[in-house]
Design brief:
3 domains, 2 helices, Immunoglobulin-like, mainly beta, 335 residues, 54% strand, five-stranded mixed β-sheet, flat, five-stranded antiparallel β-sheet
Length: 335
């Protein structure tokens, strides 16, 4: 009798509402889909089926693509047992080339598989071969020296190619478009030049290149430059803000190790600053200690500037490429 009771309990548990045997179960059909051969900037659509093979109500809580190139849309989010709902997918090949693999994660209340995957693949052919790939970088460039880089464009399948670009968006760089390179009507190049007078620092710009290629009328290229002065100064600007006491070390180092230089003088137009003795450190570098304290709130300068004090430190050197260095200095006075 006891054995019969135990068997009855086990049978009841096996068919209870919480049992995974009759719970909702998500099936993605097909689990993978290949868009096949595509051209860049081409859009294609595909509809997958989300099916509930379980016994409970399947609820889709979210559908998340791993790329902005893929847009999924699922209007029906609650699926009864044995029924299905469409998952519409729009895929844009953008600027990809070669084999591309993307995934869509489907979140649901399936107790055995709360996240299901739909994998998308495509083999994308370029309308234009662009080398380097849409990026131009001038790394560790020296102020006072001009540099140029060439971006090569080649039309696929031997089509005639024409490109045009007159300026960059920020006009930080100079550009020149050249067509029919080496007499080849399928080839063009864009010459990007960093001007010699570009200020030290990091600079970013974009150039929009117009083309006669159907399906790719414009191409945007990112341009970056990291420019250094002949003498690197750290920090380039000094801001003491509301500090009650000032202390900073200006460090100077030649961009090229062979360009040794001497510091001839260091002055400031802020009388509250004290310039310490210049310290020579390895690799032809120098450190200049700066100390001081802010002026009072009753000082005429503080009253006139409403507490915003500005000045500079001037460093004279014997390096012809950079005989003078001006370091801006700012701080605030509590009024």
């Amino acid at each position: 009798m006891r054995r019969i009771a135990i068997l009855f309990v086990l049978l009841a548990l096996s068919v209870s509402p919480g049992s995974s045997a009759i719970a909702q179960s998500i099936v993605v059909d097909p689990p993978t889909y290949d868009f096949g051969d595509m051209m860049q900037e081409e859009t294609r659509t595909f509809t997958a089926t989300i099916r509930n093979d379980g016994g409970g109500l399947l609820i889709i809580s979210d559908v998340v693509p791993d790329c902005g190139c893929t847009i999924p849309e699922m209007k029906v989010k609650e699926i009864l047992p044995g029924e299905s709902a469409p998952l519409e997918i729009q895929f844009n090949s953008k600027n990809f080339t070669g084999t591309v693999i993307k995934a869509i994660k489907i979140h649901s209340n399936d107790p055995m598989s709360s996240v299901a995957n739909l994998v998308l693949t495509a083999n994308i052919h370029s309308l234009l071969d662009i080398t380097p790939d849409r990026r131009v970088a001038f790394l560790r460039s020296l102020q006072g020296e001009s540099e140029s880089q060439v971006v090569n464009f080649t039309a696929m399948e031997g089509h005639d190619l024409e490109i045009k670009a007159d300026r960059t968006m920020q006009q930080f760089f100079q550009v020149e478009a050249r067509n029919h390179v080496d007499g080849n009507p399928s080839r063009a190049e864009l010459v990007v030049t960093r001007p010699a007078d570009m200020e030290p620092g990091n600079h970013h710009d974009i150039v929009r290149v117009e083309t006669n290629v159907k399906g790719m009328p414009t191409v945007d290229l990112d341009i970056n430059a990291q420019v250094f002065s002949p003498i690197e100064v750290m920090p380039r600007r000094v801001s003491f803000r509301f500090q009650p006491q000032f202390q900073v070390n200006l460090r100077l180092k030649p961009f090229h190790d062979q360009d040794a230089f001497k510091i001839l003088s260091v002055t400031t137009d802020l009388s509250e600053l004290t310039i310490g003795k210049t310290i020579t450190i390895p690799n032809g570098a120098y450190a200049i200690p700066i100390t001081g304290s802010p002026i009072g709130a009753d000082d005429p300068r503080a009253i006139h500037t409403k507490g915003r004090i500005q000045g500079s430190i001037t460093i004279k050197t014997d390096l012809k490429a950079m005989p003078e260095i001006i370091v801006p200095v700012t701080y605030m006075v509590r009024m």
